[in-house]
């Protein structure tokens, strides 16, 4: 994924926003896979962010194929 995406994610969570979306990652073997990501900033009693929690769910191959299909259909109609 482009570095700019990660920069945008950090800007959002540092601003206290929750970040949700799909992230493309690679295995140790170099294979690509997708995660559904939810990243939450955690604040202390003074409303200062002290840590972050990321919850990732592996996206199935079927979901990726459906997304690619939808993209192709939209491109044909445009």
Task: Please describe what this structure looks like.
The protein is α+β, with helices and mostly antiparallel strands. The chain has a single domain, classed as PAS domain (Beta-Lactamase). It contains two helices and three strands, in the order αβββα. A three-stranded antiparallel sheet has the order 1-2-3, with helices on one face.
How many domains would you count in the coordinates?
Answer: 1
Largest sheet: 3 strands, antiparallel
* Mass-distribution shape: elongated
Please, what is the oligomeric state? Answer: single chain
State the fourth-level CATH superfamily.
Answer: PAS domain
Show unreliable segments: none
Whole-number radius of gyration?
16 Å
Query: For the terminal residues, how far apart are their CA atoms?
Result: 25 Å
| CATH topology (fold) name | Beta-Lactamase
Helix content: 25-40%
The mean pLDDT is 89
CATH hierarchy, class: Alpha Beta
Write the layout of secondary structure elements.
Elements: H1 3-14, E1 19-26, E2 32-43, E3 49-58, H2 61-77
Antiparallel strand pairs: 1-2, 2-3
């Amino acid at each position: 994924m482009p570095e700019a995406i990660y920069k945008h994610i950090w800007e959002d969570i540092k601003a206290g926003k929750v970040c949700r979306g799909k992230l493309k990652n690679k295995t140790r073997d170099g294979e690509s896979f997708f995660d559904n990501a939810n990243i939450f900033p955690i604040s202390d009693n003074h409303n200062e962010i002290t840590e972050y929690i990321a919850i990732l769910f592996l996206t199935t191959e079927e979901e990726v194929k459906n997304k690619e299909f939808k993209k192709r259909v939209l491109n044909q109609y445009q």
